[in-house]
Amino acid sequence: MTSDQHIEIAQLQKEIGTYIGMGENSLLFNFEEHSNHFTLHLITVNPRHNQSFLYHTTEGLTKAGALKTMLSYVQEHKEKENSYTIQWSLQGENVLHTSYFSAKNILGALDKLYYDRDPNIIVVFNVALNPMS
Q: By the 8 A CB rule, do 75 and 57 touch?
């Protein structure tokens, strides 16, 4: 990868973070390299409860291509998905957390909540479809 590609990747990551209103320390860009493409999992980290969740997944022939698809999602397609509020707690804790997810359906929202973790450590109390604005 050339330094120009690194610069393009850094610029795209910054633009995505700026557009969704989250700083560098609150976003993780996890790339998976496959034989002929890259998968990008954009992870958000909530500083209040120190938990991470899947924001969205995209694919591209290159890392920059996957980032461009993610940028398109945050600029246009996210608005076409439903918004959900999930109230949850970690197993054994007495603290109720509230998190918000954009997804096509309730299962997609729960998949984002449970992404990359043992589903037995989270207790879900309520999932609500938010009114359209």
A: no
